[in-house]
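Protein Record: Sequence and Backbone Structure Tokens
======================================================
Tokens: labelled as protein backbone structure tokens, with as many entries as the chain has residues.
Task: work out the structure tokens from the sequence, keeping to the layout shown below.
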Amino acid sequence: MDIRAPVKLDKKTKNLAGRIEEGNIAIIDHRDLDEVAANSLINKKVAAVINCEMSISGRYPNLGPSMLEKAKVNIYDVIKGDLFDVLKDGDSIIIKGDKIFFEDREIATLLELTSSKISQLLAMAETNLEIELEKFIDNTLTYAHKEKDFILGKLNIPMINTVIQDKQVLVVVRGQDYRKDLSAVLPYIKEMKPILIGVDGGADALLEFGFAPDIIIGDMDSVTDRCLKVCKEIIVHAYPNGKAPGLERVQQLNLNGITFPAPGTSEDIAMLLAYEKGADLIVAVGTHSNMIDFLEKGRKGMASTFLVRLKVGSKLVDARGVSKLYHRRITAKHILWMIFAALTPIIITLSISQPVRNLLKLLMIRFRILLGI
């Protein structure tokens, strides 16, 4: 079946997801398409996805293409042609079989990633996983030595206005299943009212569920302006040399932000900040914790994350664990609702019972006689 629709292009999928519209064809340049990126395009209800890179290179079994296929979104890899040179946002194209046509001329040759093709590519990637694991471990150990200041406490933790001492903290990252994890801990958030820290796009996830983040921390490349404006405090993740490209965006919005120079990921320093400021408990939502997660982020190791988890591990709980372990306390309000729920069928039954209705009429007559009415 031919697909005809306008296109939106961006070499950064997360940027494209913020501006693409329903029914558009997404043109991306994303090697080894990850789950978070795929899910963002699915949520936008795109007509199709065309990748100018290899959606599954075979380096590791990434699951983004499988998610698109399962959601019935056609996904193609470009075999021949340079779409970023030929097309611009809003141009209408036609996908016919394995060809793209624009203004009645063929501009590219495609490979459609069908279910069988995706399975074949993932099977090949599985055979390469052991090699990647070895490289990943070597890189992790090498950089762990370089980034050991995470454990030794030589980082300068910035002064913040938010009081974290002896409070529980929820750190939200826009990682795999972050919406599901956040839904699972909603009762916990509403009752315990933890300090809410959004890591870049994770802050928008909080806003989506009706919570304004207390702190946004990250390089500011995937959080919305609206979210930045409603949060209470902004911390920009800077390079170890102090350079913070994200600070310029914050200042352009006439907002105040402080920098936190550190190696590693923004979610690492969010947890480190909570720990160093005396958090009683750190609950993590959507965070990255395994090799596939990190390979999908384009990282060759997880040194900083490994070290931070070692340091904060005594206070760190995964959101999925909280949803299984946390039981909401029963309050008087809950008891009243249970009593009401139990009485409702009894009241209804009595109201429609003829003998009961006759008895009530007799009681009313006797009551009126006694009163002389």
